[in-house]
Amino acid sequence: MASVHQHLRLGVNIDHVATVRNARGGSHPDPVRAALLAAKAGADGITAHLREDRRHIVDADIERLMATIALPLNFEMAATDEMVALALRHRPHAACLVPERREERTTEGGLDVVGGQGDLGPKIARLRDAGIRVSLFIAPDKAQLDMARHLGAPVVELHTGPYCHAVAGAERQHETTRLADAATHGHGLGLEIHAGHGLDFETVGAVAALPEMAELNIGHFLVGEAIFVGLDAAIRRMRAAMDTARGARA
Ligand code: PXP
């Protein structure tokens, strides 16, 4: 069984630095510069999602990230042949498989590994064989966790979107319990547990406090907050919020 994690890693997702850059089609602001800054501010990893439509991160960003950053890169990708080939070429530290639909504004649901894609297992195996740590972005649901384990993924990332969107109170509590139960169940299966999507200074605490949690991936809020306080300060405050929640639990 995987051990319960003391240090909770923070992966900073830099996609939306590229969103702002692409709004004008130039080279500023540069997501690679953001990644270097995130490292100085205490990030443990960098996450970037190369979407099929290249709406934010583009292929050249992945090349530059791989060549430039010292932190591990978590390459978010759809489970397509094109993306598997790119992952095998770049060999990032990790690959997080996410569902992707062209019309969505962001990744809306988890990957349906139970209902799903028959060739997910072979894709996971190809990435694993290349030394890439594979995670599956799934809903906090026991059946999804069981299937993730069955398919041979060492890591799952629990989708925190419904928790973050839930109204504070009973609804939020229900979603918190779902995440807690999923983290416990997944950890019991030997899976490493990550979480992400929609987290901010307010919502991060309850997720960070889950003892089985090993990594949180956070992007949109940090890049938005950076407009007001700068990326360095936003990341440091998130790191502190995670540490406080972790400490309160200890
Ligand atoms: N984890 C996964 C798998 C995601 O798809 C996203 C969104 O790209 C995130 C984490 C980060 O979510 P947010 O940008 O809302 O913090």
Detail the topology: elements first, then pairings.
Layout: E1 9-13, H1 15-24, H2 31-41, E2 45-49, H3 59-68, E3 73-78, H4 81-90, E4 94-98, H5 120-129, E5 133-138, H6 142-151, E6 155-159, H7 161-165, H8 170-188, E7 192-196, H9 204-208, E8 213-218, H10 220-229, H11 231-249
Helix pairs in contact: 2-3, 2-11, 6-8, 10-11
The structure holds pyridoxine-5'-phosphate.
Pyridoxine-5'-phosphate binds at residues 13, 15, 49, 76, 96, 98, 106-107, 137, 157, 196-199, 217-221.
Descriptive account of the structure:
The chain is an alpha/beta fold and 250 residues long. Helices cover 48% and strands 17% of the residues. It is built from 11 helices and 8 strands. The protein has an 8-stranded parallel beta barrel, surrounded by 7 helices. Helix 9 links the parallel strand 7 and strand 8 (213-218). The protein binds pyridoxine-5'-phosphate (PXP). Residues 13, 15, 49, 76, 96, 98, 106-107, 137, 157, 196-199, 217-221 line the site of pyridoxine-5'-phosphate (PXP).
* General shape: globular
Query: Which class do the helix and strand fractions yield?
Result: alpha/beta
Distance between the termini: 21 Å
CATH topology heading = TIM Barrel
Hey, roughly how much beta strand do the residues contain? 15-25%
Largest sheet at a glance? 8 strands, parallel, barrel
**In the CATH hierarchy, what is the superfamily?**
Aldolase class I
Oligomer type: single chain
Reported CATH architecture: Alpha-Beta Barrel
Rg computed from alpha carbons, rounded to a whole number of angstroms: 17 Å
- Please report the total strand number as a whole number: 8
- Report mean pLDDT, rounded to a whole number: 94
Series of H and E elements: EHHEHEHEHEHEHHEHEHH
Query: In which order are the strands of the major sheet placed?
Result: 1-2-3-4-5-6-7-8
Classified by CATH, the class is: Alpha Beta
Number of helices: 11
